[in-house]
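Q: I'm a student working through a structural biology exercise. My instructor gave each of us a protein and asked us to get a predicted structure, then write a short paragraph describing it. Mine is DUF281 domain-containing protein. I'm not confident about reading structure output yet, so if you can add a plain explanation after the tokens, that would really help. Here is the sequence I was given:
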Amino acid sequence: MLFHLFLTILFFTISLEGCVRMIPPEEVTISSTAATVPTHEPSRPSPEVSTEATTVQTEAPTSNEPPVTMAPPVTETPTHPCTTCDYAKIKVTPAGTGAVFETQEQAGPDGCKQVTVTCKRTDDTRCAQISIDATGSSGSIGSIGNAVETTEAEATLICQSDGTYSSVFVDGITEISCTSTNCIKLCNTCDIASIAPLMIPPKRNYVAEPETDSLCLEYFSQCRLNDYTQSCSIIQLLAETTAGAEPVVISETTNLFFAAAAISCGNDGTFYSDTVTGITRLSCFYGSCTDD
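A: Happy to help. First, here is the predicted structure for DUF281 domain-containing protein. I'll explain a few features afterward.
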């Protein structure tokens, strides 16, 4: 009985001592934050990112469409006033019967617009003078192109910064005209003496007799002997031409005292005979003559 009481007291004493030890010393204080219960969920490590999900496709999808090429931006160049002239605004007086105006537009060395104006004969005539005249903004009239013994004349108009055409002598051109003086048909301008043979042997002769009933110049040209009673086994009238080849025989006779052919002036102002054109020189050949 006493033994049980002793064990009970001993056990109680030991338990009390343990409780005393659990009481913290006065210097030790427990932080209020330590006792604070967190109100949010603790952070969790982010899930591992799958490399398959983040892989970027680098190969272009297969397509039959051609690649699109982006054009570079277009930069507009400011327009210079000397490129804005309009030739159509100039009044053109008709060149008259047998003549026309022709124009050709181009850019000059400085980039300014230019127009070459030509007054040309179309009736196969050659004129002592052809003149292109222009009226300026002041009302004055002056010659801007002139040629003599010709079939055409030309002038150059240059566009100015005020948008009007000018020439060397007339500014602000508003009107142009053409005058032809003393024009004759080209087929009446040939000079028969210019194609005559250069050398005539003794006892021989060259004669060019004009045909009076022709509208154009035409000559009956002959290589002949002075003595009509004599003859040659062969006589030839030959022509050199602009083709530059060997002389062409345009007439040939045998056992006679002459050889002749019609030499005509063409619409281009050069001589021709039948199908031989562009004659520049005649010559005579005499072979085995009785008066040698």
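A: Here are two points you could use in your paragraph. The chain has two helices and 15 strands. Confidence is low (pLDDT under 50) at residues 18-43, 45-58. It's a good idea to check both against the output above yourself.
Q: Great, thank you!
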